[in-house]
């Protein structure tokens, strides 16, 4: 049995704004084993990034606040640690890659200085040694050392993202959170970056949380998948569980909206409607306004998150057998 | 045939070849290519050199302050290149001696106000909330008083010594410098790379000093250099109304002030100190502009 590295339980994050309370993350639970990759999938505004920032301890406060839950790294609750202790974990134990490489590097320093910076921050190394290690990191992400002393604006988007990956991995973190690392890149570069991440992950045995809305990326790289909707996880399971046997109507809807090369269809079947406003969430099951199977019960009561086969969880009344519909159609 | 070395150089060996110029060396290179900045630098260097070496070739008692009533208001001529003032003192000698005082006060006051201003501005911009409120509201109190009036009050409460003048000028310009720094810090703090750096576990101190200030400095540095110009003007203004450098010490503003009465008949008494002031301010502005462009690595061609 693998060791659990990260165990998040009932994480709740709210933002108190002038327009009311925004419930960005509601009782999210997830866990990552050592060496495993978890994909968090969901539409824009589902709370994926907020969850990640919550784990990093980077939720802007105020207005944001972690209202409850626990985040266990090994056996330490990050929420109970002091600010300073969490800061020391960041970059060393947990690293994060942000979505847009164009803006995640400091424009006035050379790339090697920026990689060396994180090494100096966390390891007892002199500037010289840190710089050497930084150059080695650059070569690891396949950037020639000749370019080490150049500034970020002299790099292309794909190269910048590789520099960002080098920074994130410089201290051999045990958990890497990648927040849509390929979204801002074009398709060929996406493939390269994914390949590189996969490669480095296996080499360094780092666990990873991959946040994305691209199911293609998930199938490439993830072992486990959690589907997020309106600040909640609606379904989670192994890659196979989710791809071969999706339970929740939302998950099925997501797959239904992807074009399939083998199927001849006139139109794709997207999910009708939009993600609800997180400051004004619907009652009962958050998905009911957009759900084809919704009945009265869904409007008043919130289904519970249950295990249907080992490791495969979902929250839907259809599967609890409480609705007249007994089955969710696959991929629709 | 030359032997081909098949072993790859190690990272350490290559590091030597790779090492490029530092940010400052780079900036210097770019500054040299900027024509107006070069003109400004030459002007400024000449002014500084001539003005700061004046004690070597001028005697304070004989050349600068000793009245010579037979020469009163003499027009420029041989021997007195820029003429003499209402007490028969050589205008050129007084401009050179006075420039030393003006420029020193200007630079010192700028340094003092930018150190205080950067600290206050960075703290309030970075931490926001209560810290920001307290710092900014206190500075607002100073802002509410016109800075010249504030300086006048401070100088008249304290004695108009050199140190007190510097303090008064610095206090007068701290609020605007802090606001400038704060605005820059706020802008840079909002950029994504700061969050990325926080995600790497950098401390607040390191983020401010290593990441925010270097990014803020290129637009600010030109402001600081031009601030010297403003401060030289302010000290001249103070001297003009008799609160700055005290007679018989020469100072550009004081010279303008005393020459004012004769401006209808004797132009040189006011024109030359004024010209010295303008040249200094223009050269500082040119250098400031050049520095702003040179310090931004994105401007590299």
UniProtKB/TrEMBL annotation, chain B:
Residues 99-288 form the ABC transmembrane type-1 domain. GO terms for biological process: transmembrane transport. It holds the Pfam family OppC_N. Its main location: membrane. It is found in: Cell membrane. Belongs to the binding-protein-dependent transport system permease family. This is ABC transporter permease.
